[in-house]
Amino acid sequence: MTTLGTGALRVRHWLRDHPLALDGALALCVLASMIIGSFADPNGHHEPTFGTRTPQASSVLLMVLGALALVYRRRHPMAVLVATSGLTVVELLLVDPPAPVVFSVVIALYTIAARTDRPTTWRVGLLTMAALTAAAMLFGSAPWYSQENFGVFAWTGMAGAAGDAVRSRRAFVDAIRERAERAERTREEEAGRRVAEERLRIARDLHDVVAHHIALVNVQAGVAAHVMDKRPDQAKQALAHVREASRSALNELRATVGLLRQSGDPEAPTEPAPGLAVLDALVETVRQAGLPVEVACVPGDRPPLPAAVDLAAYRVIQEALTNVRKHAGPGAKAEVSVVRVGVTAEVMVLDNGRGNPDGEGDGGGHGLLGMRERVTALGGTLTAGPRYGGGFRVHAILPVKALPQQSEQPDAVGRTGENA
Predict the structure, then answer these.
(1) Which ranges in 71-117 belong to alpha helices (H)?
(2) d(CA 334, CA 321)
(3) Which residue, 108, 67, 68, is CA-closest to 85?
């Protein structure tokens, strides 16, 4: 059964790839049907009889010509319909009772109905039905109301209806296939977009972690190298800070890269992402690196921020403090402010630096770009630029969904740096 099914499938594909061969085989079948039907005599004594008459040579010639015309039914459907209809009319004029040359018209009309639109099918079909039925009624020896005449009407009508049904089904199947392909493309595009967004988020996290901790390591390593000979105790303390910063960087990198692991890989860390809850530890690390930092306001009595907003606020502060340490120059101080104002959380980092005269740590601006992308992804805004009178200001406004018990009035504590 499997072999037969495979063979039939191959034959079907071959015929589909060679439509002219298929039309030739169909023409042979139609010719055989017309010749067999020409031996039937519809005017028997009591009922139609078979084998009581023999088709004339002219009828055989017309049937052969009608079958040959069907070979080109796909290339020139209208011409084939006109040719077969003309041959049928000639048969009705010359022979009584006529041979069933009308079978070729049935196939030609079916082809037009299956390959054109419905209005064309209606116009061409009604015209063909009316013309052939009228010719059969006018030129035949049988009464106009005989069943042979109405048989011409019925066969041509069924051909048009069958072709229209096939065309509608093909259009329906094509629409379903196109819709499925479009849905598949949409799913692939959506998956690609989500992958791109996830890559961008991971890239931002990696940049924040590496930039912050490596900057601290760089500063402390410089301090250790500077005081190694004269103040070994301070050098030892600076190296301890280097070790602590590198350990923190490795832990955060491990947590971030763990998101890229697939099933079957070693289990990823389950520690939560950093947030404002560990802001004190971040500030203390920066202070140990030599940058005085003052935390002006951190909301502690309000409901906690959503996880995404909490992480974004922490990353903005982390990146801003890293930039202060890298670019603000010696003697700079920083001030951090986190304030809940209605349905938003405002994060501000100020410094009074004059710039790094040595140009150390100048980068390509990826830190500010990453902060802005992170904040914008949550629907917030971020502004960063020099302050009047010196220094730099980073201000982020992050949307927070208001809780039912949460008042819509801003915090009583003023925003730090409004007069800066």
Answers:
(1) 77-94, 102-115
(2) 7
(3) 108
Please tell me the distance from the alpha carbon of residue 109 to that of residue 156, in angstroms, as a whole number: 7
- Which pairing describes strands 334-341 and 293-297: parallel, antiparallel, or unpaired? parallel
Query: Residues 100, 34: contact at Cβ < 8 Å?
Result: yes
Dig out the tokens for 408 from the structure. Answer: 């819509």
- What is the per-residue pLDDT for 184? 85
pLDDT of residue 402: 41
The DSSP element (H or E) to which 396 belongs, if any, is strand 392-399
How distant, in Å, are the alpha carbons of 42, 132, 136, 139, 354 from that of 155?
Answer: 16, 11, 13, 19, 96
What SS3 class is residue 49? Answer: strand
**In terms of pLDDT, which residue wins out, 11 or 281?**
281
Angle, alpha carbons 326-245-323 (nearest 5°): 20
What whole-number distance in Å separates Cα of residue 131 and Cα of residue 81? 12
Is beta strand 40-41 parallel, antiparallel or unpaired with respect to 49-50?
antiparallel
Instruction: State how far the Cα of 407 lies from the Cα of 394, in Å rounded to an integer.
Output: 27
User: Rounded to an integer, what distance in angstroms lies between the CA atom of residue 274 and that of residue 408?
Assistant: 27
Which structure tokens are listed for 265?
């890989």
Tokens representing 27 are: 């023409």
What is the tens place of the pLDDT at every residue in 287-327? 888 889 988 875 555 667 888 888 889 989 988 998 888 88
Region for residue 290 given its phi and psi (left: phi exceeds 0; alpha: psi -120 to 50; beta: otherwise): left
Q: What confidence tens digit (pLDDT) does each residue in 357-391 have?
A: 444 444 445 678 888 888 888 889 999 989 888 88
Contact call for residues 366 and 385 (beta carbons, < 8 A): no
CA–CA dist 83, 97 (Å, integer): 21
Q: Which residues of 165-198 are buried (b: 16+ CB within 10 A; e: fewer)?
A: eebeeeeeeeeeeeeeeeeeeeeeeeeeeeeeee
Rounded distance between C-alpha atoms, residue 102 and residue 92, angstroms: 10
Q: Kindly report the length of the chain.
A: 420
Q: What DSSP line would sit under 322-361, residue for residue?
A: HHHHHHS-TT--EEEEEEEETTEEEEEEEE-----TT-TT
Q: List C-alpha distances in Å: 173 to 54, 166, 177.
A: 46, 11, 6
